[in-house]
Amino acid sequence: MSDTMQTIDAPCATCGDDPGARPTSYVYALGRIEARFPTLAVEKEFAQASGRTDAGYRTDQQLFHDVLTRPGHRYLARQLCWVFTVQGLETYLLEPVDASDLDLLLEAIRPAPTPGDMDCIIGTAGPIAPPDRCNGLMVPIVAVEQTYSFDRAALVAAVPRPDRVKKEEFAAAVEDVVERIVQLADNAGATDEHRALNYLALRYPGIYALAADAFGRNHSLTGVAVRPSGLSGTRRIVEVIFSFTHRATDVVERSFVRVDVTELFPFLVSKLSPYIER
After folding, report:
1. Residue range 28-39: average pLDDT?
2. What is the pTM of this model?
3. Listed residues 152, 179, 201: the one ending a domain
4. Same domain flag for 3 and 133
5. Using CA atoms, how far apart are residues 242 and 16, in angstroms rounded to an integer?
6. How much is the pLDDT for 21?
7. Which of 154, 160, 79, 161 has the alpha carbon at shortest distance from 120?
8. Same domain, 203 and 81
9. Alpha carbon 247 to chain centroid distance?
10. pLDDT given at position 204
């Protein structure tokens, strides 16, 4: 897909009628990837392929995973429609940028799914899918550059834990912050604000160390805000502000971090530091 695709957001007020003038809309989202049959014919073909597979003592999901991940059944995997859901809502239709990237989507098919499973997609948003694409599902198509599939326990285990914080306390802090970010209203990972938050959730362990330290000092996480940075010029930089309130005194402490969201892959501009209201 090209960089001149239609964006998810409202039409550009300054672009006129030229689609090529529309800005590129990037996506960095947390949710779940689901593989679905786009037509009855594909579903019947899958049934025939699974009928030739030894399915003894396997659940339907285990059989689904086994059939689709076999090299000889790659033709089936190419026919599926890949739906990305956020908080259970169908949000995007996924399309690998390169045919070889189909493996990234196949990794999201778990033989034994759990409630803590999560997927991250990074890509470029395009037009709304046509009605005949995936059983009438009309959501934006995202050209996927990269995906990550993991569960909450794996995320907690992967985040470096400060020596001064106990394992159980740190795990609880990670869970709490991730849940806050994922459940933010309308976090589909398509705005600069949400892309920055989702990037921090997966790539910057400093926010979890901050939360664990605050919880240990009897503070609650009471706010997460994102604002354009005064450093923005030719690049788009946002400030992500974390507010913690003391449970006894109601005194609020704020820390912030800067993230550059100009391009497909966000990156850290400055590490966490105390935030002073201007």
Report:
1. 94
2. 0.84
3. 152
4. yes
5. 38
6. 45
7. 154
8. no
9. 32
10. 92
